[in-house]
Amino acid sequence: MAANYNDLPDNLPVPQDDGAAAHLQGTSLPSVSLQATNQTVVDLSSLKGTVVVYCYPRTGEPGKPLPPRWDDIPGARGCTPQSCAFRDRFANFPANTHIFGSSTQDTPYQKELADRLHLPYLLLSDDHLELTRALRLPTFDVEGMTLVKRLTMIIRKGVIVKVFYPVFPPNQNASDVLAWLKANPT
To answer: Pick from 35, 41, 62, 163: CA 20 to 30 A from residue 111's CA?
Structure first.
């Protein structure tokens, strides 16, 4: 049976804060060029305004199974619901806010997701792990893949000012980010 990526199964293990993202708040972003789903290259460190980057492990492929025991990995499941939540709340973000999703999947893989879900924002590929390594983002390995643990960064003037980690449930993350932005305007 094909997995339903739109819904979160009951009884998913809740990820615990392992401290792996504690160093990020206050960190300046390095200049790293990431391929976007619109065939442009984005350097997050050079963007003006508020930048929201939600990092997710990987999205499932329609008609293909998830990695074995995927739902048993705390925080792994929920990339599609998280992406859809940012899509559905996109119009509620302040006008000067750039929103990006990012994973270690390659751009063609991400483009399929962006098109299928009609995402109004870009997905960024860190398939060479440049940003992941430069920022020492928390990762885990499964089936020979290095994946970023789910987290969201808010960046202003090239500096990470807020980190949501761990993110759970993922479909609530966009609302949490919006609430933080409302309470902390530029």
So the answer is: 163
